[in-house]
Amino acid sequence: MSDERLRELYTAAMAARPRGGETAHPSPESIAALARREGSEESRLATLDHVMSCADCRRELDLLRSIEQAGGALGSAERQSSRRWFVPAALAASLLLAVGVGSRLLRQDADTTRGGSEDAVALIQPGSSAAAGGRIVFAWHPVAGASRYELELLDTSGGVAASAVTRDTSASPAAVEQLPPGEYRWWVRATTSDARALRSDMRSLRLTGR
Amino acid sequence: MTLPEAEHNLSLAVEAVVTRFGAMVRQVGRRYRLDEADLDEVMQEVRIRLWRAQRTSEQIGEVSTSYVYRTASSAALDVIRRRRSRRAEHHQSIDAEDGAVALAEPAPDPHGALEGSEVVRQVAQAIETIPASRRPVVRMYLAGHPREEIAGLMGWTEGKTRNLLYRGLADLRDRLQAMGVGWERAEEAG
């Protein structure tokens, strides 16, 4: 039997295991410790042994170690950059930020927020403010292949003040009518029929008193 | 600056920070088959946390990489906890609904499939007999991860990784041979 055949058999054996089976999963902290190379080798090997035989935990490790390595790579780049190019970089960044913010502000349509990528959800309304106590219609552009949309309105503490799930490209959550004047933010997530999730930017919404 | 302008600038600053970090995670994650939906969920959580921090756009613009990284790490753990909790609830509801229903019997297999499933079972059994210090390495190798990745994850030298993998595969080979399953020695492992 070749290594290739053994790999196929191993893959089949892992696929045949019941998902979320009877063995206890290592804690998220243990998987994070594995990704960070923290703790004893023995405990990390024990965690890795489970992770490599559990599809759910493996996905969690992939996420955590991607974040760990990105943090390390960016931190290293930041340190190098600050050592070598601190003054010129700061000036360039300020200029870029000023140009970027300025041009974006100029381009910004009062009622339309474009997503960060071509695949993001683009919000339409409401604009930056609306009267508190009344019905508010939230609307966005359709996303190709979307099977449902989730709308969330967050208060200043980040809590969900109102939400809705719909197949339509607009929603008017009744809870919004009960909200006091203040600052809020809202966003929409689209889920496509092939289970992809696309998101909008966050938009500010100020509910004003009548 | 008016309040809406400040809000807008804050939004841009948060988005810039999140986009920069998210792009790096995506770039790294391509090596690890990272599920983009998982990352999206984490980065949305990071957005909310930065917003909750109630900083000004200038402060957000000056946020260090280590701060965003710590926020993302903590957000990822919360996302994982929530997901596990949802899975547990889902399993409980299935158990409650279908408690009396027996699991479906597998469809009758042709002879070849039965033989194959027996070998699959033997491989799964043999893996479990490898010493714990070598078994995860063998699992990673058989799952298609290169030796360099195993070494990087465990913080081992190339020599140590090669040694553990070689011995672990030898254990597996011996066990399978004892079970009557032949195996040609691997070239790429040695």
Fold and architecture overview:
The complex is a heterodimer of chains A (210) and B (190). Chain A has 210 residues and is an alpha+beta fold. Chain A folds into two domains: 107 residues, Arc Repressor Mutant, subunit A, CATH 1.10.10; 86 residues, Immunoglobulin-like (Sandwich). Chain A contains four helices and nine strands. In chain A, strands 2, 4, 5, 7, 8 and 9 form a six-stranded mixed β-sheet that branches. About 10% of the residues of chain A have low confidence. Chain B is mainly α. Chain B has two domains: 85 residues, no CATH class; 68 residues, Arc Repressor Mutant, subunit A, CATH 1.10.10.10. Chain B has eight helices and no strands. Chain B is elongated, with a radius of gyration of 25 Å. The N and C termini of chain B lie far apart (66 Å). At the A-B interface, α1, α2, α3, α4 and β7 of A face α1, α2, α4, α5 and α6 of B.
